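Weekend entry, working from home. Most of the wet-lab plans are on hold until the incubator is repaired, so I used the time to fold the two sequences that have been sitting in the queue since the last round of cloning. Logging both here for the record. First:
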Amino acid sequence: MKKENHTLVSEFIFQGFSSFGDHQFTLFVVFLALYLFTLAGNVIIVTIIGLDRHLHTPMYFFLSMLSVSETVYTLVIIPRMLVNLLGLSQPISLAGCATQMFFFITLAINNCFLLTAMGYDRYVAICSPLRYSVIMSKRVCVQLVWGACSIGLIVAMTQVSAVFRLPFCTTKVAHFFCDIRPMMKLSCLDTTINEILTLIISVLVILIPMGLVFISYLLIISAILKIASAEGRKKAFATCASHLTVVIVHYGCASIAYLKPKSENTRDQDQLISVTYTVITPLLNPVVYTLRNKEVKDALRRAISRKLS
């Protein structure tokens, strides 16, 4: 009879932000505004990079790929979260939940490795400027993007098949999307093996790219300090500042969320961390790369002046 109960769970209900009660509409307005800003910002970045030949460089190619990935990543999670905040939540099917988790993991890991590729690009630009165009050829850039996406796909298939092989005993997900740990908590069985698998994968896909970026920046800083002129050092640091800001927040949130054996936080704390990497981090791209990046701002001005003339 118990085994029969396992097959009864064919859909799930997100509890989302139900503990916030009357504040849910306020959260809806805030998250909707942030989401629209994120979408608009990422669309502007991709459009500007596509239209302006001055930005047809490896760095901006990676940035446009990151913006596309972040846009799809938010589309997978935020619209349903907004609907839930309005109290219009509909159950999500077992297949729908698995699909959401698959795209979430694929794109999250893709973003991690794209940031690593961007770190490598900055390392080559500053440490081997004369060989930059040879090392960072179009073919190499495409291979790096394809590699990032392939790792995401492989890990997503592994994680989703491991989680959805578990029998589920309850339908209420104490979260606002089908994340790995909240789904494992619904299982009737002991999930220790799944926890270990999640931790191993998290170490590989967070600490390895984070370590590579860290090494890149140690070499970059060492090279910058050897530059004779203060103006040259300032310009070199400026080209890395935007990327480094996004890297620190992105890897920081991912580490807090996944590099612990079991969640020691309350449900609200877990959701706050999740909001950071599903709503706030994707917003960083357009904010950091348009407001703090001179080349993108100049390209935006050129595009506006062409439109007005």
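Second, folded right after the first finished:
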Amino acid sequence: MSFQDFLLDFKMLHVAGNKRTAVTRGLILWLLLTNIMVLVYRLTLPTQVDIRDDTCTLNLGKPFNENLPRPSRRLQTDTCAPSGNIMFLKTHKTASSTLLNILFRFGEKHKLKFAFPDGRNDFFYPSPFRRWQVKSYRPGQCFNVVCNHMRLQPAEVAALLPPDATYVTILRHPACVLESAFHYYHRAVPFTWKIGGRDKLEEFLRSPRTYYRAHAYNAFYLKNLLLFDLGSDNNLDADHPDVTEAIQSLSQRFHLVLIAEYFDESLILLKETLCWSMEDILYFKLNARMSASVSRLTPESRARALGWNGADWRLYRHFNATLWDKVEVYGRERMKRDVAELRRRNAEMRALCLEGGEAVEALRIRDRRFLPWQPLGVKSILGYNVRKDIHPELRSTCEKMLTPEIQYLADLGVNLWLTRLWGWLKDAIS
């Protein structure tokens, strides 16, 4: 994933066809400037700290925020205190932006202390997470919530949080992750530029090893991306012992792994785990794509995608099973009632907040504060318009529910100079 890998990718493309279109030149310029920005960002990072005596020194007798009592696990009782110490591992292309918005709103409401990145919206992804990447970090400093994109390093994260923190992440069916990641990122993955045909994903899946190189620039986006986000080698075969070990380790660390295909059921379990209210988990679906941009995988292509992402497929099946084990404990009838109530209240909020009650194409979003980040070269991510006649008491709540990640981070005081520069370059060559 080094700049040298990118140059080698480009040389292969040059030999393969020497196609010098304006778009390709723009992509090359974007990648060159991206590497320059990464270098500048590295130079602005603080010096790495001595980590031998650098863990969270929270006085467990005092909560961070007097408005939010210390968490207690819900046992055989109807009373518990809401939890505000949370680690959310935000995975890619899994509905994680919707869940992030829920966490932002809860944390802002209760004045929780977030561990935010500095200069960008992720913790220097895809490099492994280090605690000194946190904005204004000081050794021994404690936080309530860690939730931005990172490549997981459990010990580094644990050093920032109290011991009673709840660990949460979300997974999605690997074939859907690959389809979404390919659409969103393939223009930033040079080895895909030489793929011909109208359906580049279909062509890629016919013979992925023809195009894929394990350590090529941004290659991780197109193979076992979930496992990569969770800190493991994305090039492992499904039956590799390290995959088994990774699944076991994650099972021990994470209190709840949500499944995107059962998002509402997962949210009900999250509410139960954290002792939150139904109001805390209301949401609008964020970063959804236009249906026309979604590739419809044939059964054969779907099978190839799962074979290509075999390690992610093992990971997904394991945690899908654990989710339904938790549903059984929760009670299926109780779950049905609660999911129905969540959907009823979400529909009520859509009617109260949203013009037309649904998402619209990017070009139809009137207020740029609510315009989601778009993939390179296309505007396929939907967003929302707030109703013009919205009740004044609802405006703030509604706007927060539909605010995209980048804008919400800015509202919370995060300096996003590198992300904004990246966005300007992206828009300039699109």
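Plan for Monday: verify the second prediction. Residues 134 and 408 are 17 Å apart (CA to CA).
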